[in-house]
Amino acid sequence: ASCTLVGLSATSGVPLFVRHTGHGKPPAYALIGSLNGIHVFGESHGVTLCTTRTHNANLIWKTYHDSIRLILIRGSETVGDSCDGSLLDLMFASLVLLLGLETLTSATNVERLKRDIRPCYVLLDELLSRAMGCEDHHGFSHLTGCAECLIPSEQHNLQNELEKFAEGADSTYGCVMMQGHVLCGTRNFWSLSHTELVLLPLLVASNTFTVARDLPIYLPNKSPNVPFRMLVIRLTGLISVVTLCGPTPTLTEMMRAASSFWAPSYQTLEALSSLLPCNISPSLLSHLDNAIIGLILVNYDHKKCVSCVHLSEESRSRCLSVNRKVAALRSVYRSVVGPLLQPPAMPPEDFPSRLHPDHVPLESYVSTDNYKVYILQSSPYHLLVLFPPALPIHIARQVSIRTLAVFTKGKVPKI
């Protein structure tokens, strides 16, 4: 299996970058030029080439602002789908996030643009690895278009503290993250677009730093040409606080402020490590049925999703490895959400949907020799629950309904 992303100048056809993951080597520049030539030939005859398939590859083309053309090339053994278009949108948005739209669309020096794009490689590689289903890349945000979250039991108190801290930094966009997952965010943070909420946590997780980082970024939807300063300050070994600021305060001032402000909460923050690797509080975890070996819950209205694939009790984990659980849930999500179940209330741009308007199913399931997945839709939620293959489907349905109630009713923290 392999996956390659190629970026070219739409006007000259000059390759700007090539990123590759998986087996084999990336395509030669001569082949890339031929692929671009096919697209240009179609355009000259009034035809826009979007996707094609050969005996050994699946290809998708997409041009942005008549300036940057992206080509996604999957090996034929790698499953491609209609979500690949949204994946290309995320990859272009990654370039905008770090460089700004004007830099990408008005560049006249191709060699300089190539150099400018290099800092984007880490984020592009992360998205490419997720598309491939590589090990250690277990997230679902690139599919759901929602931020990956953790559900702590102290969410309300943590939220209040974050609002005060962000206000002191003269920022309305702030969040507390742990290993690329959002623990809580300010009200305005959740007003960011789906794309921005997917990319910001990935950017924080992929940037290595010891104590703090001051990084200029552009919000692809909200502010593609005027940069914010993303200040990331590590509070504990796993937890960081992130704020989007203007010219002030300085990073040094923010580090001092964070040190004094969060010091009384240090023990509480350290205790949040108990959320990993299951991503939900132990008290909430105890309410899940023992038959469940994995799940994804998505709230499209709040732009949040939570996944749990590390259920580690022997009775739960012996049938599938963590990587296979992730692959199973991703495969089912791609095949069911959009093509079969109602698209999300606030979908990412071009979210795939082939539904007949007179038929809107609310439940579905997938059964294979290795697992069962039951899917529930209850606006604004989608819940996918992974079970061992031997579990009867009527039991899987009952457990799934109870599980949705555990997450959405009562006094437990909600996403």
From TrEMBL:
InterPro entries: FUZ/MON1/HPS1_longin_1, FUZ/MON1/HPS1_longin_2, FUZ/MON1/HPS1_longin_3, Fuzzy. It comes from the Eukaryota. One of its GO terms (biological process) is vesicle-mediated transport. Residues 170-262 form the FUZ/MON1/HPS1 second Longin domain. Residues 292-409 form the FUZ/MON1/HPS1 third Longin domain. Pfam families: Fuz_longin_1, Fuz_longin_2, Fuz_longin_3. It is found in: Cytoplasm, Cytoskeleton. Residues 11-127 form the FUZ/MON1/HPS1 first Longin domain. GO terms for cellular component: cytoskeleton. Belongs to the fuzzy family. This is Protein fuzzy-like protein.
